[in-house]
Sequence to fold (764 residues):
Amino acid sequence: MITTGKKVAGTAMAGFLAVSLAACGSSKDNNNGSDAAASPSASASTSASASASASAPASSDSGSKEKVTITFQNIYPDPTDPKYNMLRKIVKQYETDHPNVHIELDSLNTDQQKQKLKTQAASNEVPDITIVNPSAQMKPYVDAGLFAPLNEMVEQNGLKDTFQSGILDYYTFDGNLYALPDGNNIALMYYNKALFKQAGIDAPPTTFEDLVADVKKLKDKGIQPMTIGEKDTWTGSFLFMNMLLRTNGGPGFLQDIVDGKKTFEDPAFKGAVDSFETLVQAGAFQEGATSFDYNAGENLFKTGKAAMYFMGSWATGGIEVSDANKDGNVGVFKFPTIGGKGDPNEFMLAPGSAFAVSKNSKHLPETLDFLNYFMLNYPKEAFAAKGAVGVAQKVDGDFKAAGYSDMAMEVLAMFKDVKGGDISFDNTMNPATSQAHLSSIQNLFVAKKDAAAVAKEHQQAYEDNKE
Amino acid sequence: MNVLKVSRWTIAAFVLPCLLLYVGLVFAPILVSFYNATLNWNGIGVAKHVGLDNFQRMFTHDSVFWPSVRRTFMLAGFSMLVQLPIALFVAILISRYVRKPNFLVSSYFMPVILSVAVIGQLWKTIYNPASQGGMINQILIKLGLGDWTHAWLSEPKVAIYAIIVIGLWQYLGYHILIQFTGIQNIPADIYEAAKIDGAEGLTADRYITLPMIVPIFKISVVLSFIGSLQSFDLIMVTTAGGPAHATDVLASHMYNISILSQKYGYGSAIACFLVVVCLVATVIINFLFNRLDRRYN
Fold:
């Protein structure tokens, strides 16, 4: 039998539960820009501003505007990356200026975001703003009509002119612009000067043969020569394509394949495979490289555990502020020639990942307005946050005076030397062919394979998947 | 037998919503998948009808397919032939010799409730190479067995076995719990009667426990076999099917094809194969166990 005391206690508990659920509900509304890593003070200030603006509807007509939530999918999950803070700063500023707009951030790492977007696209639930990679990687989405053209939006506030000339071509299809890039990067070799000195290497290698010799010297001293995040298969592919850029004596190999002038069984391709395998067999990469994702691989370099790191210049911001770069310890050098072939001033070009807007966005005008604001402020904030190396827009300002490190200045100098280059495999070929290539390269990390067999594999995949 | 004494129509009306949900969420998508398998489609664009082309390609032209089938069956086989006997043995021991079994059974059950992402990270720190702090390799080196170290998750030959071990560890407690409950339900007087006849301990088990636990054991067999045929999350978290497809199973191969290579139609063909395999396996298991049941009851 239930006593009166138990009944009272039961009712009190139920009431308590109901009240706590209600409290949860209301606090969620006030918590603008809630990100797991956002500091408590940030959320307190935004909730204060939200309630302040909510209590002052008479002063502006924003009180009658409907509440708009924009989902912003991005690839800056790492709080040590300057772009992380920069993005959140611009978002917060916009939310303060437009109190009826709430921007929900979905931060993922690169490969995860690619996969998530593919799943979302299949069910037609593309976020309002998402990230796509240039040319071939964004073509399927454009062909499916998932993105809104940005031709008009980019004319507003002179946004179009802020971009470097020619960069927007990588994101234009049939005369329509579909995405705005966050960067224009080149691939470099970052190196740890102290570790080089420890192994008795005086200067960075200028030929591939010197590079392999340096790898051996580092290994003899028990230093990890290079690091790579090969669980994210594009990293190995990026390095491989740079070797192909050299053995081919210049850019355009994949274009020749597409035009039917060459096949993958060309000696230049086989030479690149041989060089790649030489590097792997020399023990350049860390044990279990295929289970290190991009961030884990980069961290190995940033914590000073590896001597060299091949990556695009977007990594400059993160490496600059890392332990490895204390006292300007990190330098950069151009990828060496292979067998005397190739021009060191030809780089792997990486027009950056770009922001695209979903065509079926519920709040298309607001999203376009926000993206316009975001891209206008992007170069300024990037410059201030020391992340402006490799931005796709023209950046005004004295980098040296702003306190950019010597390494950043070196990287900027490299940009001036660029005479041309190639873009990555998966930005040129369709997804199915690219997947076959990515797996094939990943395979080279665990097993030695005959270059002719690898070439045949590629050619077979290309022919099977030709559209 | 109508225990509730209500009309058949009332029963049907109450069952209908659940049935509709089940058909809508399970059968309809499977049928749509069968249809999708006849298309050449990248998931977001226009589809092209190609009939049985995908199936033909899958069976003859795909170098990843048959190894992944082999690995899937290996996973299922190990979980059935290694995990279940151990689970049954442990359950028997617990029910016989442990005074307060609940604590022990709960602790064995813990890995089942851990999320796969946590398990993946946990086992990666165990399997990592010694230079990255991997536990197994460090122990082997300290014991002087340095030759036995491997890059457990990166070496193609070893990786799938490493993952099988994780799978066995994860669900052992689940099956222990099921078998344990089954054993508890066997009436104690049968054992006492057997004791009088002189059959104790493991002999009693052979003639009493095993036959009586057949229906419960069947549940475990079906769950573990079908469950491991579909295993996907563990593979993705630890190796993503790599390196170079060395740990790809049917489900992860299907995912890679559908999402990464954007060949949704072809991926659906693989999914169809998986569905058919699971159905056939269920039928076979049911058949075998019905035979066993009839023999012992």
User: Anything to note?
Assistant: Residues 185-349+410-464 of chain A form a domain with the D-Maltodextrin-Binding Protein; domain 2 fold (CATH 3.40.190.10). Chain A touches chain B through 30 residues (CB under 8 Å). DSSP finds 18 helices and 13 strands in chain A.
